[in-house]
Amino acid sequence: MTSASANASKNTLTGSIKVGDTIPPFQREGTLQHWNRYAGVNYEFAGHHMDDEIGRHEGFPSAIGMAPLILAYLHGMLRNWGGEDARVVKVAMELRRPFLRGRTLIASGKVSGTREEDGELLVDLEVWADDDQGTRLVGGTAVMALAL
Amino acid sequence: MIPGKDGSLPRDFRHNAEKGEAMSDTYITPEMRAAVGREYRWFTSYPIDASDIRRWAIAVYYPEQAPPQYWDEEQARKTRWGGMVAPEEFNPFAWMSAEPRASLGVEAARPWPELYLGVTPPETRANILAGLEVEHTKVRMRPGDVIRSATTLAGYRERQGRMGLMLFTTSEERWTNQHGELVRTGRMTLIRYR
Predict the structure, then answer these.
(1) Is there a contact between A109 and A127 (Cβ–Cβ < 8 Å)?
(2) What DSSP element (H or E) covers A93?
(3) Taking CA atoms, what residue in A is nearest to B9?
(4) Average pLDDT, chain B
(5) Is B185 within 8 Å of B170 (Cβ atoms)?
(6) Which fold has domain A3-29+67-147?
(7) Which of A16, A107, A131, B139 has the smallest C-beta neighbourhood within 10 Å, fewest atoms?
(8) Contact A82, A14 (CB under 8 A)
(9) Which CATH code for domain B11-48+97-193?
(10) CA-based radius of gyration for chain A
(11) Confidence check: pLDDT of A13 > 50
(12) What is the ipTM of this complex?
């Protein structure tokens, strides 16, 4: 995408956002292929992220995904929606249930407010991630800044 | 080993709580209370490399291709940022910090602040991450940047829950770059219980 087309899409987005809008979900499978890549960049090698047996030993049904990876997925969802010139201002998440290996995480968001500040449109959102069985894994809030 | 990062309680601990084991009145000692507000940990990163950013983005977006502004310098120059920047959640301290030379593997096993503050930690056997909050300024992390983090014990609170008396410990983190500009602040809340 060129800068011009980025601006065009950005302006289209800022002009159309309203409270209650949902943003495109960000979906990722919970596999060791995914988690080990993240382990490699974030130095997260706890056994319960890599080995079902260790996960079970600790009381979980399987290996479990990393909380910072879920936080990164929420950031990814926001960036995919906002485009390359947007920036993530804030993400707060409360952990509720583990992301189990074999499940699929589906991150979602809904606009809860907008305001202009310092040349940017700040968009408040409710954000959450469920698994493919409908279990809420995390809930939280976010703020995204879109250039005006 | 007790889960430390993923927010759910191991079966064994649920069972113990259901048995109604005796709980203390408080975990928070005067020594712990006096430590609130103190900085207890800091790191200085090695200079961020463009390939650190590429690898981070590839891992986070896998199996989709990462957005080109994280791996294509030419594309990155066309964005509002005028060059390659790291995804906001990028961690420049992974694997090893320049100062002190400690790995995050050691960190993850001992995440509570008392150990750094010379304060006796409460006797708990479970430690889980309850929440993460990050706030990013307009200052982005770029290749060549050196990031310094400083972590402060923000406070303690307690609450009775299904697991009995639970201790909530919140720490706050500030990241600045080599120019002294604030890049990011964060809050992490850990729950501990017997």
Answers:
(1) yes
(2) strand A87-95
(3) A59
(4) 85
(5) no
(6) Thiol Ester Dehydrase; Chain A (3.10.129)
(7) A16
(8) no
(9) 3.10.129.10
(10) 17
(11) yes
(12) 0.91
